[in-house]
């Protein structure tokens, strides 16, 4: 029986063009990009060019884009990294109840470490109520993390409006954009996005690589 895979929201195959582009860096240009010799510097130049290309697709600059091991690692790094680095300023984070486990499990871990997390309800369409979001902000709030597009029901949150609310109160805004990146136009500056998680295997790239 022939099987047909339909869940491209979960993962996608690597496109032939992507595979063909990557292959030389497994066999020919394999230097350590941190090395100062020519082999390493050749690899580094490709890595830097890739970083610049990806950053430009979201209106960011190369020096603000970091490669990670995947979307969940990006989520983990964004939330834990920022909350711990700024715990002298506050201890409160706001998210929604329908986030990806990459966010929800990280929030649960933060709660065990003494941080406070508010989990916002959503309506029947999966949308966060902006009034509830703003009402949840308090003096101790450091970060808001709301996913761009839900991985199970496809709801697209009003990201620009959430960014405006966050910045109005001096709060950092992170979004898990794993399901959005590569499918819709994103401008992190115009939308008020301070941190954003992305993943390659949702858009015909390889597994095991993401970005923040």
From the structure above, extract its key features:
212 residues; seven-stranded mixed β-sheet; 7 strands; globular
Can you characterise this structure?
- There is one protein chain.
- This protein is an alpha/beta fold.
- The protein has 2 domains: 16-56, no CATH class; 64-211, 3-Layer(aba) Sandwich (Aspartate Aminotransferase, domain 2), CATH 3.40.640.
- It has 7 helices and 7 strands, in the order H-H-H-E-H-E-H-E-H-E-H-E-E-E.
- The chain has a 7-stranded mixed β-sheet, with helices on both faces.
- The longest helix has 19 residues, at 38-56.
Strands in their spatial order, largest beta sheet = 1-7-6-5-4-2-3
Q: Biggest β-sheet, characterized? A: 7 strands, mixed
CATH topology of the largest domain: Aspartate Aminotransferase, domain 2
- State the distance separating the first and last CA atoms: 41 Å
Any idea how many domains? 2
Order of helices and strands: HHHEHEHEHEHEEE
The assigned CATH architecture of the largest domain is 3-Layer(aba) Sandwich
Query: How many DSSP E strands?
Result: 7
Number of helices: 7
Structural class: alpha/beta
The shape is: globular
Mean pLDDT comes to 96
CATH class call of the largest domain: Alpha Beta
Oligomer: single chain
Specify the CATH homologous superfamily of the largest domain.
Answer: Type I PLP-dependent aspartate aminotransferase-like (Major domain)
CA gyration radius, whole angstroms: 19 Å
Helix content: 25-40%
Fraction of residues in β-strands: 5-15%
**Low-confidence parts:** none
